Amino acid sequence: MYSVDKINQILKRNLKEAEEFSLDGLSKKLYEVTDVLDFEHFLFAVSVPVTLMRAENVVLTNQPINWRDFYENNEVMYFDEVVLHCRNSTAPILWNDIVKNGQHESKNVVKLASDFGLGDGITVPLRANFGCLGLLSFSNRKSSAILSNESTLLATYVGSLIADYINDVRYEVCKQQPGFVESDLTLREQICLAWVAEGKSSWEVSQIIGCSERTVNFHIQNASEKLNAFSRTQAVSKALLTGSIEPMLVYRSVGKPMT
Questions:
Q1: Which strands sit side by side in the sheet containing 118-127, from one edge to the other?
Q2: Mean pLDDT of 30-56
Q3: C-alpha to C-alpha distance for 99 and 165, rounded to whole angstroms
Q4: Which residues form the signal peptide (predicted)?
């Protein structure tokens, strides 16, 4: 119970007070919670889509620098069983299971990591809005004992709390992109773009929401300018990635005039 209380104290947010976010601040929290869990190392990684064709990766870790250099220089991510698992599942994965059931040693990421002093560990897949995928790993030194059930349960709990920070990470990444704008689309602009995303023409949208085709074009043009987009297609893409439009947004407006 003591560990859970300490974890909550470090990671749970005060809903009544706005907390200023920074990657350095999150890294500090990860150091603190890793110590509470009695692990040696942590790794928090998030892939943030900035367009439909490109993503930026954010990595916060205290793993040995020689291992991180090897991982990056040899593009281990592309055959990393842990990363592949996290893309396809939300269930935590124990590193010891990968050692038993994974690929040949030359491609087994856990065995490769052990050459750099990392021992047993656990990885928790993370999900967030707008297509963000991530993971949180905790591990010990090579000579440490196998993880206890309590350690794996607490690590999974920490993952559920850390996931709440991913949208903050996404915003930090997105605001550094060239041409970034904080869009504030009106409801009319959102509805028109949402129907464009459904493949509707301006005329079809006008019939659905009860206004003129010219009005629809006006709202789509305004939305495109706010999103710094050069076409309808790009406007829809940016609106989806920024959360300016979301699935089922227009359900209340179907068949109703747009007032």
A1: 54-61, 41-51, 133-141, 118-127, 93-94
A2: 93
A3: 30
A4: none
